[in-house]
Amino acid sequence: MVMEFNKSDLEGPRINRRTATKLFAAAGLTSFAGCSSIGGDGDTTSDTTSKTTAASGGSVTAGWNTDTVEFLDPHYVDKGQEIALQSNIYSGLVKIGPDGGIVGDFAKDWSLPDSSTYVFDLHEPGTFHNGDTLDAAAVKASLERLMSLDDSPHLGKVQSIESITVEDETTLRISLSETIGPFISFMTRGPGRAGTIVNASVAEGNPDEYNRMPVGSGAFELTERESGQYLQLEAFDDYWGTDGEGNALPYVDSVRINLIPEPSTMWTALRGGEIQYSNQVPAQNAAQSESMDSVDIVGANPGAWYCVAPLCNDPAEVEWQQYASGNPNPTDKWQNEDLPTTDPKVREAISKAIDRETLVEHAHFGYAKPAHSVFNPSIAWLYEEEPDLGQYYDREAARSLLDDAGYTGDPRMSLSLLGVPTDERRMTVIQQMLSQVGIEVELNVQQESAFWDTLYRYENELVMYDGYVDIDPWMTLWKQLKTPVKEGSAGAWQANLYHNEEFDSLLEQDYHTSDQGERTDILRQAEELFIEDTAWVMTTFPLIPKGSAASFTGVGNQAGLSNFHTARMG
User: Among 207, 295, 345, 559, which is 20 to 30 Å from 537 by CA?
Assistant: First the structure.
C-alpha cells in the first residue's frame, strides 16, 4: 500500500481538497491540487434528463503551441499538449475539480465496500459521439482494452485490477488484487488517463483511425483536422454533462484549435484578437500582460520538469541504443570526433555552470522553480526544494572540473544544444551561462515534428528535455533513464543513453515495491547515483502561463489542462 487512507475518505461524490492532496502525493499529483484556474469545469448534476439551456453560444479560436498532435487515443497519450486536447473530447470516471478535489465525471458517486473494491454509481446511460451507448459496460470495455495493451504507457495503472463487474447499466464494481491508496486518482480524466473512457469497439476495429479521429463521449466532438494546422471541435449536442444548475454543457458552440509552434506568433495572435485562448504564452509576454486589460494570464502547474540531457555514450558503442532509437545502424559521427559529455566531470561542470535562480527570472520571468534534483514538486513525498545532495550553481567549481577533465583550451569545447521553439529563450540563457566557463554552444532549434527524429540520431551532445504530468517517480525514471531493453518499456524514451547497472537495479526494486517508506529508501539511493553521474542537468520546474482574452472566461486550467466545458464568450 502506497499510503494509508480511511476508506470513507475515498468515497464519493466528492473527495475534499485535503484528502485529494494526500492522494495526489501518493500518486505524484500534489501540484495539481494547487493549480490556479480561470473558471471551472465544475460538478455536474446527477440527472442529465433535467437539462436546461443557459445563455451560451459562439465560436472560439484557441492556440496550441505545437506543430503536431501525434496521439489522441488516451491509452497512448503521454504529452501535455495531447492530454489537454483529449480532456475536451472524452469523459472520465472522475476528474479534478476547480479547487483541486476529486469529483465525479461520468461517475456521479462511488463507494468502497472494502479497501480494495470500488463501486461506481454512474450517470444514466449517455452516448458516444457516434451514437453508441455510454454505460457501465462501455466503461468496463475501455478499462479491459487498456489492460490488454502491452505497449501502453498507462498499463501499470490498471495492473492491480483483478476483476470488473457490470452490476447494471449504471453500476460498475472494480476489485483490486491489493489496496492501492491512489487508485482513484488514476481514474481521473486528463492526468490519470487510465479512467478516460475510450469507445473500445471502435478503437479495436481501426486503431490508427481512432487515434487520428477519436470517438469520445465528452463535451466536444472532433469533426475535422488538418495535420500540422488545426483541429475543429464542435459542441456535442447529446453530451450527458450539465453544470451545477442543470444547464447543458458546453456553453460555446465550437472551438477551433490552431497549431502555432512559434511562441512570438502565438503572443501576437492572442494580443491581436486572432485567438481568444493560448494553452501556453511565452513567459516574457505573460509578465508583460500584467499591465494589459485585454489579456488574462494564469500560471498552471502541470507537474513538469525541465532538464538538459547530456549524451552519455557513443551510440555506435552501445548496442542497446536501438531499443530506444529504433535504429539498428547508429550514427558514426562520434567515431572521429570527441564526445566530451561521456565524461561525468564534464557533465557535472555543465550542471554547476547553470545558475537556476537566474534562469527562473531571465528565461521563465518567474513562472518556474529552480530544479536541484530529479523529483518534481508534484511528487510531494520525494521532492525537496533545496536537497542536501543536489545540483547547484558554482562557476569556479565548474571551471576546475573542466581543467581536471583536460579541457583547457579557448574555447574549452564546442557543443550542440537541440531544442524546439518554446525552448529557445531558455537555450539562449543556458548558452550564455556555459560560455562563462569556456563552453561554446551552438543552438539547434527545430520544430517538434522534426525534433524527435533528430534527437534519436544522437548527433547532438546536449538536448533540451522535459516531462509533464509525471504522477509517479516511475514515470520520470523508468522509460527515460533505465537502460533500454529489447522487450518491455524500460528505457524506451532514452534521450541521452545513460547507463548505470546499480541505478537500473534500484529501479527494478522500486517497480516491485508498494510500500512508500521502502520506495523512498530505494529512490533516495537512485537519486544519489543520478546526482553523482549527472545523468541529467536539471534546470527548472515550470509553471505554464496560459492566456485568454478578457472577454473569454471559464476555462478550467487545473492540472495544467485547458477544459472548455464551462468556457464562455463575455
Answer: 559
Q: Which is nearest to 37 in space by CA: 106, 101, 108?
A: 101
At residue 154, the 3 state secondary structure works out as coil
The residue that leads in pLDDT, 282 or 350, is 350
Residue type, 123: H
Q: Which residues contact 129 (CB under 8 A, 6 or more apart)?
A: 215, 216, 217, 221, 236
Cell of residue 47, nine digits:
440527472
Task: Give strand pairing partners of 540.
Answer: 306, 370
Query: What are the pLDDT digits (tens) for 288-343?
Result: 887 788 899 988 777 789 999 999 999 999 999 999 999 999 999 999 899 999 99
Q: pLDDT per residue over 35-79, tens digit each? A: 333 344 544 443 434 455 555 789 999 999 999 999 999 999 988
Whole-number CA gyration radius for the chain: 23
Ramachandran bin of 458, using left for φ above 0, alpha for ψ from -120 to 50, beta for the remaining angles? left
What residue spans define the domains of the chain?
7-301+544-569, 305-542
CB 73 within 8 A of CB 275: no
Query: What secondary structure, in 3-state letters, does 368-425 show?
Result: EEECCCCCCCCCCCCCCCCCCCCCCCCHHHHHHHHHHCCCCCCCCEEEEEEECHHHHH
Q: Do 7-301+544-569 and 305-542 come out as alike in CATH topology?
A: no
In a 3-state reduction of DSSP, which class is residue 141? Answer: helix
d(CA 392, CA 373): 9
> Over the stretch 176-209, which tens digit does the pLDDT of each residue have?
998 775 678 789 898 788 999 999 999 999 999 9
Which H or E element spans position 511?
helix 501-511
Which homologous superfamily is 305-542 in?
Dipeptide-binding Protein; Domain 3 (3.10.105.10)
* Fold (CATH) for 7-301+544-569: D-Maltodextrin-Binding Protein; domain 2 (3.40.190)
Contact 353, 439 (CB under 8 A): yes
Instruction: Say what the pTM is.
Output: 0.71
